[in-house]
Amino acid sequence: MNTATTIERPIISTEELLNAWKGHRNLTRKVIEVFPEKDLFSFSVGGMRPFVDLCKEMITVSAGGLKQIITGVIEPFEDAMPQIKEKADLLQAWDEATEQISIYFPQISAEKFHEDINLFGEYKFPVIENIQYFIDNEIHHRAQGYVYLRALGIEPPFFWDRY
Predict the structure, then answer these.
(1) Keywords for this entry (predicted)?
(2) Which of 20, 97, 99, 136 could form a disulfide with 63 if both were Cys (CB 3.0 to 4.6 A apart)?
């Protein structure tokens, strides 16, 4: 009889999850880079917001949400970001948010992933569900950016080109 203890490996580690998320952020950054400057701030389809506004939301939700998870300081949702006036400003804000994600995410303990948190004073879910929402939100809004680019006659980056 074998009495050896088997240690099961999780399906995905926190490091692998962070790397997958950063891959999505890399791809979204490529979408921002492809946008013509004027259209980034003004073009929309079917009444949807311009892509810059979708990006501001993604920045606020992800970096702002992780900051709230780590610090416990809950602040209302605010994504106006008046300092973003050009594509270069948006890319800088995007890169800064990605760096914040790289700093905050590894600070989440295994236990913390299962704690409820009331992010932005609006959404009370376990931390892992909030992080899944951050990633889903980015994929959703990036897809809107793909629709905009195609409507403008611009080939978007390949969806699998995340690195």
Answers:
(1) Metal-binding
(2) 97
Judge whether 142 and 73 are in contact, CB under 8 Å. no
Domain membership flag for residue 27 = yes
Residue 119, pLDDT score:
95
> Do you know the residue count of the chain?
163
Q: Using CA atoms, how far apart are residues 75 and 67, in angstroms rounded to an integer?
A: 10
The pLDDT of residue 123: 80
Tell me how far apart the alpha carbons of residues 30 and 163 are, in angstroms, rounded to a whole number.
10
Strand partners, 123: 119
Range of the domain at 98: 14-151
The residue whose two tokens read 């914040």 is 100
pLDDT digits (tens, 9 = 90+) for 58-79: 999 999 999 999 999 999 999 9
CATH value at residue 79: 1.20.120.450
Question: To the nearest whole number, what is the mean pLDDT of the chain?
Answer: 95
The answer to whether the CB of 18 falls within 8 A of the CB of 106 is yes
Of residues 67, 59, 68, 80, the one with CA closest to residue 141:
59
Q: How many domains does the chain have?
A: 1
Taking the C-alpha atoms of residue 145 and residue 151, their distance in angstroms, rounded to an integer, is: 10
